[in-house]
Design a protein that fits this description.
The protein has about 350 residues and is mainly α. Helices cover about 75% and strands about 5% of the residues. It has a single domain, classed as ABC transporter involved in vitamin B12 uptake, BtuC. Helix 2 packs across helix 3, helix 5 packs antiparallel against helix 8 and helix 9 packs antiparallel against helix 12. The longest helix has about 35 residues, at about 60-95. About 45% of the residues are buried.
Length: about 350
């Protein structure tokens, strides 16, 4: 049974709270923090969770502080922020397109970011900062191209997905061509980046992600009500005072920025943006966009997958993108079967 409560502030603002969704967010947040503590303690030099917590509050030994604060904590924070960005970005894409397949993985944003990174690596022999900038620019340009190509008196969900699939195919071919013309060293570097990994991430990747999330996440949550109204149809939304196309355009820009920045920081990590909103919706049992649960689910999935890749295969032996790709591929096949049975594809 769904329990919904409304809180009213002194200024007359009414806030609707879904008790089940609040509980899901709390549980997922606790799971993400727990997995983070365990992940920080995992590696060639294992550290018990109690010592990890003690070190994080400044009471650890000198060696533990170096290992945790300088080496492992930035990697875990990047994982949390990348997972949260992909989860929220995927929820926005799926809500705007009204399609469970409307995620950055399917729409080609990951391929666009990879194309930008490959151009810098193969044609310019750029350094790590230039590769990151190229990936960010590639993702943004791809998102803009998809929106313009899908525009026809508005953006229809299935048209957006179909255009995205076409753009993804073109970019995949471009990426393959760039790999074939690169030398062995550049090709190896490109393949490692395209796999998607948190290995070697430091504070230089943490701060841009944290700053972007601090600005964009509140902006998205402030527009949750308008996004929920668009699910009733454009005509009803306009009648209720929602500027539908303006809202979609703004949220699409936010979604592209979130996914492109996340991809630039860690490489194209597959299927988190696709699966996180779906799993969050099944837990909350709510038909709405489920933005905050999707954010928490994305963070939990990525740090858990990173722990699994280290625990099962040894530290840094298997990039986290391989784990998420394998698990997400199985989920995608299951989702396609469900959509086919429902007659939607």
């Amino acid at each position: 049974m769904k329990t919904t409560r409304a809180l009213r502030t002194r200024g007359g603002l009414s806030i609707r709270l879904d008790a089940r969704a609040v509980a899901v967010v709390a549980i997922l947040s606790l799971a993400a923090l727990t997995a983070s503590v365990v992940l920080i303690g995992t590696g060639d030099f294992p550290i018990p969770p109690a010592d990890v917590l003690r070190t994080l509050v400044g009471n650890g030994s000198a060696s533990q502080e170096i290992i945790i604060n300088d080496l492992r904590l930035p990697r875990v924070l990047v994982g949390l922020l990348v997972g949260a960005s992909l989860g929220l970005g995927g929820a926005l894409f799926q809500a705007i397109s009204r399609n469970p397949l409307g995620s950055p993985d399917v729409l080609g944003l990951g391929q666009g970011a990879a194309a930008g990174a490959l151009i810098v690596i193969v044609l310019m022999s750029g350094n790590a900062a230039q590769v990151t900038a190229g990936a960010l620019l590639g993702g943004i340009v791809t998102g803009l191209a998809i929106y313009l190509l899908a525009w026809k008196r508005g953006v229809h969900g299935y048209r957006l997905v179909l255009v995205g699939i076409g753009v993804a195919a073109i970019l995949t071919a471009l990426n393959s061509y760039l790999l074939t013309i690169s030398d062995l060293t550049d090709a190896a570097s490109a393949v490692v980046w395209m796999t998607g990994s948190l290995d070697g991430r430091d504070w230089d990747q943490v701060w841009p992600l944290l700053g972007l999330c601090a600005v964009l996440v509140p902006l998205v949550l402030a527009n949750t009500r308008g996004l929920r109204m668009t699910e009733m149809g454009d005509d009803v939304s306009y009648a209720l005072g929602v500027r539908v196309e303006r809202l979609r355009m703004m949220l699409l820009v936010v979604a592209v920025l979130l996914t492109a920045t996340a991809t630039a920081a860690s490489g194209p990590i597959s299927f988190v943006a696709l699966t996180a909103p779906q799993l969050a919706r099944r837990l909350t049992r709510s038909p709405g966009p489920n933005l905050l649960p999707s954010l928490c689910m994305g963070a939990t999935l990525l740090v858990t997958a990173d722990w699994l890749s280290q625990r099962a295969f040894g530290a840094d032996q298997l990039p986290v993108g391989v784990v998420t790709g394998a698990l997400g591929g199985v989920y995608l096949l299951w989702l396609l079967v469900i959509e086919r049975k429902a007659g939607r594809i």
